[in-house]
Amino acid sequence: MVEKKILIVDDEEFICDILGEALTNKGYEVRIATNAEEGLDILKKEDIPVIFLDLNLPGMNGIELCKHIREKKSRAVIYAVTGYSSLFGVSECKKVGFNDFFTKPVKLKVIFKAAKDAFDNINQSI
Ligand SMILES: [Mg+2]
Q: What is the pTM of this model?
């Protein structure tokens, strides 16, 4: 079993707060970053297998960030969560290595299922 750690990267703090609190209540250990660089820093220090990325971030966007993470972590489950689906299409997301794509406002139920499925898949593949 891998540790149930999740990283959330979103520049909107209330999104981080809502997702962070909800996932913590579900028993996950949650790390939060409000920009790409912070997210990469956390991933250098900790092995986090499941990652939710906002695509529209200041500085490095979520597409670039996903590419960077994928270079190092081929087996992580990385989800895009974005309100700007028109800027980046699903095919672009798949191309850079996102496992799936959710459009804001996203229901917590959907996030919970995504997190559970991710850990189920990771644990099955070990
Ligand atoms: Mg954003």
A: 0.95
